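Illustration 12: Ankyrin repeat protein.
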Amino acid sequence: MDENRGTALHMAVNFGETRIVEALVDAIMAYNGESALKLRNRRGNTALHIAALRGFTRMCRCIIGEKGERKDLIKVKNDLGETPLFLAALACHNHTFVYLHNASKDSGVSPAINDNHNNTILHNAIADEVFIKQSNPLLFISLFLY
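Figure caption equivalent — predicted structure in token form:
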């Protein structure tokens, strides 16, 4: 583990190496279990945070598990209080955001979760105006009503 960049999994996700990510997750689950997927880089990001921030939905699905068996990873906050769901919205990755939202519905993760500055995803999206302009505003806002 590199203190600044994180684990090999963090780096593979960051470089968009899907096959390597899949192999690493398989190896982690076979030998170490889920705790290795919770390791953080210097900013407190897990590999799932990075996948969400980069909009790598397939990698998010791999890390969470095809059947959502590790969806509790969506609740993990980084040093700024941001969850992977939060980061997907901030980076305007609509498909990744919707996937993470749907995967986390029954795990207690809400799009209304606050970061360390007491901002929600909706606050940031409105402030940036980017996410709402690039997607269907009614769909985005409806996610906060349920």
